[in-house]
Amino acid sequence: MEIKKGLYYTEEHEWVRVSGNTAYIGITDYAQDAMGDIVYVELPEVGDTLKAGDVFSVIESVKAASDIYLPVSGTVLKVNTELEDSPEMINEDPYGSWIIAVDMLDDTELDQLMDAAAYKEYLSEEN
Amino acid sequence: MADLKRTPLYDAHTRLGAKMVDFAGWEMPIQYEGIIAEHEAVRTYAGIFDVSHMGEVEFTGPDAESCLQNLVTNDVSSIKDNQMLYTFMCYPDGGVVDDIIVYRLKQDRFMAVINASNIDKDIQWMREQAAPYNVVIKDRSGELSLIAVQGPKAEEILNELVDADLKDIGFFRFIDGVKCSSKTCMISRSGYTGEDGFEICLRNEDALFVWEKLLEAGTEKGLKPCGLGARDTLRFEANLPLYGNELSEHITPLEAGYGMFVKLDKGDFIGRDALKRQKEEGLTRRIVGFEMTENGIPRHGYDVLSDDEVIGFVTTGYNSPTLKKNIGLAMVDIGHSALGTEIGIQIRKKVLKAKVIKRNFYTKSYKK
């Protein structure tokens, strides 16, 4: 299972890539593998303001629908509309396929997240 | 996954990298490579499935046929030796105990293949109803395994290993005592995918050997191991019902749309009065096919609405791997069941539009 250095991770298997005050958010390799073939990604509206822990997207595999939780509070700047036509991109390249970008309200929330080493440790404990 | 039962092929599944899940108390492969790849392999080449969790029950004795005739809705007297019959076993109120396949081995010997989730319930029910009959009912589920090879290449692959010509086996017929890679099997032309294919019933101790021989022989022809995930999407596209979804103790075969397997004129059987009455009075609800006209994937259990009123529920729904459309089956009030009717599906917080379409999403390619 690939874990990328330099990203932040949640216990629900989302990742965060920070660029300035913008947080790009996706799901981890572990998450896409657990879900299986992804066939639909429900995206929020640009401009929505959401709190950390809110469901911001639903990813549907052939088998089931999974809620995706926002790791940090913020306003949605961009949504990855390529996923509407090619949701399987998340299976193929989970760390390259961001779902949304948010303008963070409080970047100290990042301190609550795991780094790559901690996430690796977390995965090994989970399994 | 403690306390789960395992089939004799468990180690083979984990070696192949399968994801294992709890299915009806069994630790079974949900997928190996991925549901879509496995689904496409079966539609295009072939797939091999471990369905050893299913139950096998033998009926032996002079009353075997009359006992079964009373238990099930289809006409058991219509099949000869080496023929099979798909049928329902109903409660007196017409609800379904299980959907089963009856194999006629001899005039006084039959076998029923039953759903894994219903084995204990079915056998108890069968034994209670069999009391007045001169028949011995034996649960053979613990000693037999079942392997399905499905898809257009199934016959070619299996023919390499079997000492009989499979061309001679018609749809829903079987041969017993045939050798597959030197192991004794019962092979039927049947399955649960909408494709041509076979089901191989054999002793537990022979299952792993035959499974590996089949994979060896089939891999170069595109055969892939397939899990329960693809099994469900395949059977759904082919409009084959799943007990617990389209069928249950609260749904009759007529409501489910499978009246062709209910022979009201064959003589008495359990559930006949209720089903006859339901047919005469007319259905108040039935299962329809539908296609989403707004973007969303329907799932088992979602509400079906019309003008904010709940008028039914989704029994199965998927983004169909073959058709690439969001389609489903739903039990709806009869007034909303006509082809072309607009209905709404409650998907999370939204009600998304759908319309009633024919249920034969995928045309079955069975061999005649």
Taken as a percent bin, the fraction of beta residues of chain B is: 25-35%
Mean pLDDT of chain A: 96
What would CATH call the class of the largest domain in chain B? Alpha Beta
Count of β-strands of chain A: 9
CATH class of chain A: Mainly Beta
Q: Largest sheet of chain A, if any? A: 6 strands, antiparallel
Task: Estimate percent helicity of chain B.
Answer: 10-25%
Q: What ranges of chain B have pLDDT less than 50 throughout 5 or more consecutive residues?
A: none
CATH architecture of the largest domain in chain B: 2-Layer Sandwich
Helix content of chain A: 10-25%
| Number of helical elements of chain A | 4
User: What kind of sheet is the major sheet of chain B?
Assistant: 6 strands, mixed
Q: How many angstroms separate the termini of chain A? A: 12 Å
Number of domains of chain B: 3
Total beta strands of chain B: 19
**Overall geometric form of chain A:** globular
CATH architecture of chain A: Beta Barrel
Total count of domains of chain A: 1
Q: Report the end-to-end length of chain B measured between terminal Cα atoms.
A: 43 Å
Question: Which outline of chain B best applies?
Answer: globular
From N to C, what is the helix and strand string of chain B? HEEHEEHEEEHEEHEEEHEHHHEEEEEE
What does this structure look like?
The complex is a heterodimer of chains A (127) and B (368). By secondary structure, chain A is α+β, with helices and mostly antiparallel strands. Chain A has one domain (8-113): RNA polymerase II/Efflux pump adaptor protein, barrel-sandwich hybrid domain (OB fold (Dihydrolipoamide Acetyltransferase, E2P), Beta Barrel), CATH 2.40.50. Chain A has four helices and nine strands, in the order βββαβββββααβα. Chain A has helices at 29-35, 82-85, 89-92, 116-126, and strands spanning 8-9, 14-19, 22-27, 38-42, 49-50, 55-61, 65-69, 74-79, 100-104. In chain A, a hairpin with a 4-residue loop joins strand 1 (8-9) and strand 2. The mean pLDDT of chain A is 96. Chain B has 368 residues and is an alpha+beta fold. Chain B contains nine helices and 19 strands. Chain B has helices spanning 10-15, 35-44, 64-71, 119-130, 154-159, 204-218, 228-237, 253-256, 272-281; strands at 19-23, 26-31, 46-50, 55-60, 83-90, 96-106, 109-114, 136-139, 144-150, 174-180, 183-188, 197-203, 223-226, 285-292, 303-306, 309-319, 326-333, 342-347, 350-357. In chain B, strand 18 and strand 19 form a beta hairpin.
